[in-house]
Amino acid sequence: MSRALPLALVQAPAHAPGDLTAFTAEVEALTRSHPVVRLLVFPELHLCATDGPDAAEPLDGPCDKALRELAGDLGVWLAPGSVYERGEDGRVYNTAVVYSPEGRRAAQYRKVFPWRPYETTAPGDRFVVFDMAEYGRVGLSVCYDAWFPEVTRHLAWMGAELVLNVVRTPTADREQELVLARANAIVNQVFVASVNAAPPHGIGRSLLVDPQGRVRAESGGDPRAVLSDVIDLDEVDRVRTYGTAALNRVWDQFGETDVALELPLYGGRIDPATWRRAGKGGRP
């Protein structure tokens, strides 16, 4: 059995705030040029070319309505990057959103780790995964989140088989982010898609990594690039069952008689009884 997911990672410069006409044309053109693709992923703040959060609006505002309609009209899963969300508490969040082919908002995730002190958005307080019908479960992270291993680890524990890390990095540390994308895929045995903005808002170098850490597709610092591929989410189960390189089975590390490992940093513990990830191995 195969759960084949055709997807496209779109490395492109950001649009001016509120410029949904240009974004709509961009998405429509991509669905014509890549007719079998079911998931389109764009970079962080792709709809917010300006650096400040002045364009923030409530999550259920006019932008959300237009994006729901766009995904529904085209019948695709649409991850338009992240947007500036003005929360009910009056704070501004950097929020990744995803829309389903039925024209509904399937997920929203507030960036937990803003890049301090440069980013002034408020941090989110929870991890988010969502189910893509017949394909599988997907987790969301935004840019600097990838530097904190707890984020991808929790998404994998919640059952994510693919992690979408939408990025807007114009700085030299993109080199390290490429290493982190592979490392997060390896230690959690998941697909990782790291989608960076193109110049002038980012320096590109987007990539797609498989559950063994192999790079399936990678772009350069091009002004625009589309990485398209077909990934089989059943590969996640195979790698976790037989091990990375037929050796390492990190999600089956603990035995039933092993004692809990205290984690003083978190004021918590790794409990063998709850270590197994969600999905076929049981839900947390």
TrEMBL record:
InterPro entries recorded: C-N_Hydrolase, C-N_Hydrolase_sf
Keywords from the UniProt entry: Hydrolase
Keyword set includes Hydrolase: yes
Gene3D superfamilies reported in the protein's UniProt record: Carbon-nitrogen hydrolase (3.60.110.10)
Highest taxon listed in the record's lineage: Bacteria
Gene Ontology terms for molecular function: hydrolase activity
Database matches in PROSITE patterns: CN_HYDROLASE
Keyword Cell membrane applies: no
Residue ranges occupied by any CN hydrolase domain in the UniProt entry: 5-238
Family as reported in the entry's similarity comment: Belongs to the carbon-nitrogen hydrolase superfamily. NIT1/NIT2 family.
The protein's name: Carbon-nitrogen hydrolase family protein
Source organism (scientific name): Streptomyces montanisoli
